[in-house]
Design goal:
Strand order of the largest sheet: 3-5-1-12-9-10-11
Length: 788
């Protein structure tokens, strides 16, 4: 029975869910169809900023198959409340507040808006019809008269004095605070031998998960209960948010989600369409379904990144870091969904380097664009990019080798636990060892020879390095209910009911490996139950690297409760003292004898035997509900090597090497896969991806895959990745998250490599995305400056 040796913690077990997902037997949101369902189509604003002067839906309502045309007037009449977005920050995170002490006021976000429209794609009406074709035809006949208003798409422009108002009766900048010690920072800069500065913009990107969003809403008048079927970042949070919008107790709402084809954070905030399908279902007395297509996606789904940064780094004559200062301005879009990207970015601006003094201003601006929200490694890739670019600029200015500069300033193991200048406590880390390991794996010292070989072929070759730290927090509370169910004709099962959810992370495998390790049961006997609020009452879903990190804690506690109770039951069955019984490999055994009983037999005894004490009867179950207020700090170092064709500006990534510390890998194969996927997401932003808005109108110019460039498999090399496993002392199993580490350093390491390749042309920096045109222009621009 003991499967832990081959399938437990640390084993590269193939993902159990892949057979189902790859053979078409997965169940995604659009796969669900309910009897009698109607179809919803959203009417979206073509303007980024406008006032609705009139809506005439009479023609649309009279069209064949149309059941309803809903507008903001209906939302108001039925008392739907605004979508809840801003939530309390995690206790471990810093929280930037307005410097003048005033409260941060955010605009209200209703499911259907009017009369003021504040971004292209806002829902101004919803058409529900018997068929999807009927709904689409009618949506085109809703006549809306708009009065266009001035629009602002960039945060820097919105923050300028005298900028057009993004939203009537609302300030453009809604948050303006700071963090750090301004006095100590100014003093350090005053005595610095060298100061380098970087003014940059980390542009906006889209999440583009494999599965477009879809939702089905239903209402049962007999129980007065609402049900939402939709893929999201979790089930418990949407249930709470939907109840708030509907103005009903959470007990009247059920959220069900099955397979989800990707998230990365874009599904993490509550969406207007989720409320609309459920509300419409009640009004019409039948289920209502909505499915996004790809064209709609680019104006309907939340976006990410979009951070303007001005930063300076002060160094002494020996290249020791003295201080950092600067300003981070995040583009919230038309609504403030979360301040996490701003807070999380600022709190680790110093990365894993010892910087004695810091002072950063943090601001959040509204613009007439789609709202942004936390996205894979929220806020951290942006600031790691800034720090690693500053270090390379400092190496150029001081003449100190860029690796040596990093060696001199990385926080040593002897300083652990280390409190960074913003107050974040890094629990542990072997930063020097990880960097030296990746340099060796990447053959850093052999690069000059490879560069020479590229030059012989007329190519420019560059190499870059980037260290990183990630601060993982997320919703701090998680719960697990683990129940051992007795053997039946097909074998016993261990049911794990938990509030985390999977959007491709492999939870069905890695979570089962933990149970296999602790309870000694076959991995195929472990059944994971998630994503249904009728079964799951508590849980934070999957975000900020919390799922396995927190899920492992509550599953571990629950498993220990099962073993403790099982020992007592086994002592009755085996007629031996509890202290004489040992548990291993799924069996309770009287020490030194051949008398033993399996865990499923113990579970059967707990249900069937009437001679057991009352507290030992019933299901063999463990329940753990924990709140973990500590952050986790994964870290690592990546090296990227690129080759550039100077005639075309085309960039090829020829080598990419990574060492990431995850504390303890439950399934190394899955972790490597997470790192690979994370790298591609970061590389995509560095070289290709960008959501583009027209500056004067706020129009979305990257509204399809014809305009939004996505990385493909043949555009990246095979990665050379290795895991470091320095156990975290703040986690009972030593685990650090691993899902975001690939993305966090990728922006910085790729651009560092590109700039290194272009250094022979005098290029010292290039903005993202480093497209062939941008590279080509950088080369020609410097040629012209030299008189070429």
């Amino acid at each position: 029975m003991d499967g832990s040796a081959s399938t437990g913690i640390g084993q590269p077990v193939r993902r159990r869910e892949d057979l189902r997902l790859l053979t078409g037997t997965g169940r995604y949101s659009d796969d669900l169809n309910l009897p009698g369902q109607a179809y919803a189509v959203m009417v979206r604003s073509p303007h980024a900023h406008a006032l609705i002067r009139s809506i005439d839906a009479a023609v649309a309502r009279a069209m064949p198959g149309v059941l309803a045309v809903l507008t903001s007037g209906d939302v108001e009449a039925d008392g739907l409340r605004p979508l809840p977005h801003i939530s309390n920050s995690h206790p471990a995170d810093i929280q930037i507040k307005n410097r003048d002490g005033s409260p941060t006021i955010v605009p209200k976000h209703y499911a259907i808006v009017g009369p003021e429209i504040c971004h292209v794609g806002e829902i101004v009406a919803a058409v529900v019809a018997v068929t999807l074709a009927d709904a689409k035809d009618a949506a085109e006949r809703v006549a809306i008269e708009y009065e266009p208003l001035p629009a602002v798409a960039q945060a820097l422009a919105a923050a300028e004095p005298g900028a057009p108002t993004v939203r009537r009766n609302f300030p453009n900048v809604i948050l303006d605070g700071d963090a750090g010690d301004p006095v100590a920072t100014e003093a350090a800069f005053a005595r610095a031998a060298h100061v380098v500065r970087l003014d940059t913009w980390i542009p906006r990107i889209a999440g583009v998960p494999m599965e477009p969003r879809a939702a089905v809403g239903e209402y049962d008048p007999q129980s007065d209960r609402y049900t939402l079927h939709a893929g999201a970042g979790g089930a418990v949070s949407p249930r709470r948010d939907l109840a708030i919008v509907l103005g009903v107790p959470p007990e009247q709402v059920r959220v069900v989600m099955h397979d989800v084809g990707g998230n990365f954070g874009t599904r993490g905030s509550f969406s207007a369409e989720f409320a609309l399908v459920v509300w419409a279902a009640k009004r019409l007395g039948r289920p209502v379904k909505w499915t996004s297509d790809r064209q709609e996606y680019f104006v309907a789904d939340y976006q990410a990144r979009d951070l303007a940064v001005s930063a300076e780094l002060a160094l002494d004559a020996e290249g020791r870091f003295l201080a950092m200062r600067g300003s981070n301005l995040v583009n919230q879009g038309a609504y403030a969904l979360a301040f996490g990207p701003l807070n999380k970015g600022v709190e680790i601006m110093s990365s894993i380097y010892h910087v004695p003094a810091v002072h950063f201003r943090g601001r959040a601006a509204l613009t007439n664009t789609i709202p942004t929200r936390p996205y894979r490694s929220s806020g951290r890739p942006e600031v790691m990019f800034v720090m690693e670019r500053l270090i390379d600029l400092a190496a150029l200015k001081t003449g100190i080798d860029r690796i040596e500069l990093r060696r001199r300033n990385l926080v040593p193991e002897s300083m652990m636990p280390y409190t960074n200048p913003f107050g974040m406590v890094y629990d542990s880390g072997a930063y020097h060892r990880v960097m030296e390991r990746v340099l060796w794996l990447a053959d850093w010292n052999g690069f000059p020879e490879r560069r020479a070989e590229s030059r012989r072929r007329g190519k420019c070759r560059g190499i870059g390095v980037a260290n990183y730290v990630d601060t993982a927090t997320g919703a701090p509370r998680e719960k697990a209910e683990v129940t051992v169910k007795p053997e039946d004709p097909v074998g016993g099962t261990v049911e794990v009911v938990i509030g985390t959810t999977s959007q491709g992370q492999g939870h069905e495998t890695s979570f089962a490996q933990l149970i296999t390790e602790w309870l000694g049961v076959p991995i195929d006997s472990v059944k994971l139950v998630t994503g249904d609020t009728d079964r799951v009452s508590v849980g934070g879903g999957a975000h900020s690297g919390r799922a396995l990190r927190l899920g492992s804690v509550v599953m571990f506690n629950s498993s220990n409760q099962i073993i403790e109770k099982g020992l007592k039951i086994a002592s009755h069955v085996l007629e031996a003292a509890v202290e004489d019984i040992a548990f291993a490999g799924g069996r309770f055994e009287v020490k030194g004898t051949d008398r033993a009983i399996g865990i499923f037999e113990v579970a059967r005894a707990a249900l069937d035997r009437t001679d057991l004490p009352e507290d030992l009867r019933g299901p063999l179950q463990g329940v753990s509900d924990e709140t973990v207020n500590l952050a986790a700090f994964p870290y690592g170092c990546h090296v990227c090597e690129v080759e550039i064709d100077p005639d075309t500006g085309e960039i090829e990534i020829v080598r990419y090497t990574a060492v990431d510390d995850c504390g303890r890998a439950v399934n190394p194969m899955i972790v490597h896969g997470q790192v690979h996927g994370g790298i591609v997401q970061g590389v995509g932003q560095a070289l290709w991806e960008q959501c583009v808005y027209e500056a004067g109108s706020g129009q979305v110019l990257s509204g399809s895959f014809m305009d939004y460039a996505m990385p493909k498999a043949d555009m990246v090399p095979f990665f050379d990745t290795e895991l470091s496993e320095v156990p975290s002392p703040t986690h009972p199993l030593g685990i650090r998250p691993a899902g975001e580490g690939g993305t966090t350093p990728a922006l910085g390491v790729v651009i560092n490599a590109v700039v290194d390749a272009l250094s022979e042309f005098g290029v010292t920096h290039i903005e993202m995305p480093a497209t062939p045109e941008r590279v080509w222009r950088a080369i020609r621009g410097n040629y012209l400056e030299k008189g070429a």
